[in-house]
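In the previous lecture we treated proteins in isolation. Real proteins rarely work alone, and many bind small molecules. This record shows how such a complex is specified: first the sequence, then the SMILES for flavin-adenine dinucleotide.
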Amino acid sequence: MAHDPYRDFLRALPPESIVQRRVSLAPFTTFRIGGPADLLVRAGTPESLAAAIQAARSSGVPHFLLGRGANLLVGDQGFRGVVIRSEAPPEGDGLGGIHFLDEVTVRAAAGVETFPDLILATVERGLAGLHHYVGIPSTVGGALWQNLHFLSPDRKRTCFIEEVLAGAEILTAEGERRRVGVEYFEFGYDDSILHHRADVVLSADFRLQPAPVEELRAVIRSNLEWRDERHPDLWLYPSAGSVFQKIDGIGAGRLIDEVGLKGHVLGAAGIFHKHANIIVNLGGARAAEVRQLMDLAQTTVARELGYDLVPEIGLVGEF
Ligand SMILES: Cc1cc2nc3c(=O)[nH]c(=O)nc-3n(C[C@H](O)[C@H](O)[C@H](O)COP(=O)(O)OP(=O)(O)OC[C@H]3O[C@@H](n4cnc5c(N)ncnc54)[C@H](O)[C@@H]3O)c2cc1C
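The predicted 3D structure, ligand included, written as tokens:
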């Protein structure tokens, strides 16, 4: 009988784990692009997430931790290994992984989606702090990885999710499950310790401020309108948001626009006509086409303006 490279991994998983073989990853990303994972584990609780990661580590199989898939481009050949998807717990478990610890503190499992689930649950209770991030696709774990951010209501500064984070439970790179404070994460712009250590967020606590619900709803409306005017609608134009990092405070979109590539189409992928730092899937785009567009933007901006664009999105698997 042929040797199954995943036998040890599957044996190390708790028996109730949900595992699928050769599953296309495209539906699990906001780009809706990407080939199959050899194995996909659906981890719907902090316990199952920790168990799947431990099983992958102990059996030595290549693995990737996936959240909402909103900041990634998965290759057309998919991922040779195990993709562990951090998902929200079933509704039966309280509010689906969302628990209020006191009047102003909420604990959310890593796989809970910040929008709509966590934001709606907190806004309904008249709690401010997470409402700034309305309309941004993310899990709680992905939000900490990235230090999720958006403009303040007066658009004068950037709000970061670290401002309302009280602490988190993590599985450390060394395999220890423990609670850490906000300072542990060493947050920066689009950065946290999670980029530099293989720690996994299992759940996070947010300390919010009481505020009139109507005030919060006004900010939500205004932020959604702001996004509507500038960003592609994910249903019409699947994307992974901004593709390249800012350079010395200059938006990459401005540079790509300046070299005339706004609206440029290659196969079924295009540089979005309203925002040149976003590449959109016009229907059936391949990862290879997105990569070619990224290369074109990088070489043209370097040649004509002398700036080196650095990707902000993660490239996962085989291209
Ligand atoms: C239309 C659109 C608009 C966007 N607008 C914004 C914006 O305004 N502001 C902004 O900040 N971002 C924005 N983004 C980017 C994206 O929403 C964020 O990066 C988001 O936080 C990604 O979360 P995720 O769950 O999808 O993570 P994924 O994309 O699935 O994963 C990203 C990384 O996080 C890691 N990760 C996931 N879960 C965990 C965990 N539990 N523990 C440790 N690491 C983990 C993954 O391994 C991976 O390396 C936008 C994206 C889109 C598509």
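Summary for your notes: Helices lie at 7-12, 46-59, 114-124, 140-146, 213-230, 252-258, 287-305. The pocket of flavin-adenine dinucleotide is lined by residues 30, 65-72, 86, 110, 136-139, 141-143, 145-146, 148-150, 194, 200-201, 231, 234, 239-241, 314 (CB under 6 Å).
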